[in-house]
Amino acid sequence: MTHLPFIAASYGLFVLLALWLSISATLRLRTAKRRLRALDAALAAPGVRP
Amino acid sequence: MTPAPSPHPTSPVPRPSAFARLTSGLHRLANPGRFTRLAAQLQPWLTVPGVLLTLAGLVWGLVYAPADWQQGDAVRIMYVHVPAAWLASAGYAALAACSLVSLVWRHPLADLAAAEIGPVGAAVTALCLATGSLWGRPMWGAWWVWDARLTSVLVLLFLYLGHFSLVRAFDDPRRGYRAAAVLALAGAVDLPIIKFSVQWWNTLHQPDSITLTGAPTMALSMLWPLLVTALGMSLGFAAIVLGRLRASVMEQRLRSLLLSRAGAGRRVAARTAGLQADTLDGRGEMVAP
């Protein structure tokens, strides 16, 4: 295969970027869900008024 | 028994126009709970086909598609570079559309959507420039040339970065969203410049191989993997933006719940201290008398 380093670098960049974007979005979503669930549970506890 | 016809014929109820239906649909989505439910249902339908199509298209292009008779195997960079370039422009068009909806209807979700499209679009634009550079070095003998197409895409990257920075530049997020929306709309003028740069100026960058009106100038054995990859990457882009948008909606709800809780706490404290209710603003913050 000609120009292999350039091709490998292009595909590698794409894979790294796709992984970074998807993992960061997943982690952010998971953290937001967990915090919201914890806060909802805390607010729903008896004696706590929002 | 049939009812007697009414002596006063009623006029038929007018059907809402397509524009009215669109705006009412947009306003229904302003409910965070409804949006989060809908988005959660839509997420796997974007993610799974996006990943599968992208993988299939990239393997097809890398292994099975033929090499170019002039460029050799370097043409395989096209399967990453071209979808990234399309997504960079399409992402900015979506960002500008969200900005328009935000400025015209003050739709809260449009602000959040624009803020989440920005970083993903900037990353895709950077990928387009980097892969273009990696393609240009063996073909043109240069990593970069100040060609009209390359320069206009670089301007697009700066527009994305400017939008990203403006959203976060103000203490009041609404001012940040508004300023960023104005920039996004003004910057939309770069999209036709990118599209037509290879026709308006004598550029080193090749002219478009695929147009909406004419037949493609590339072999079908190269076109199909390119289209499959582009579809997969578009679905993946939408899935990532949707995931970030869902997180953003939840973070905003979290902030408002915490604020209201803190405000209630301050009101109780103020009442205990014997302060008048008018020393607190709507969020429970102390205001100067």
Automatic annotation (TrEMBL), chain A:
Pfam families: CcmD. It is a single-pass membrane protein. Required for the export of heme to the periplasm for the biogenesis of c-type cytochromes. InterPro entries: Haem_export_protD_CcmD. The keyword Cell inner membrane applies. It is found in: Cell inner membrane. Its main location: membrane. The chain crosses the membrane at residues 6-27. Keywords: Cell inner membrane, Cell membrane, Cytochrome c-type biogenesis, Membrane, Transmembrane, Transmembrane helix, Transport. This is Heme exporter protein D. It comes from Rhizosaccharibacter radicis. The keyword Disulfide bond does not apply. Belongs to the CcmD/CycX/HelD family.
From TrEMBL, chain B:
Coiled coil: none annotated. The chain crosses the membrane at residues 44-64, 84-105, 117-136, 148-167, 179-202, 222-245. Keywords: Cell inner membrane, Cell membrane, Cytochrome c-type biogenesis, Membrane, Transmembrane, Transmembrane helix, Transport. It comes from the Bacteria. It holds the Pfam family Cytochrom_C_asm. It is found in: Cell inner membrane; Membrane. It is a multi-pass membrane protein. Residues 48-205 form the Cytochrome c assembly protein domain. PANTHER family: CYTOCHROME B_B6 PROTEIN-RELATED (PTHR30071:SF1), HEME EXPORTER PROTEIN C (PTHR30071). Belongs to the CcmC/CycZ/HelC family. Required for the export of heme to the periplasm for the biogenesis of c-type cytochromes. This is Heme exporter protein C.
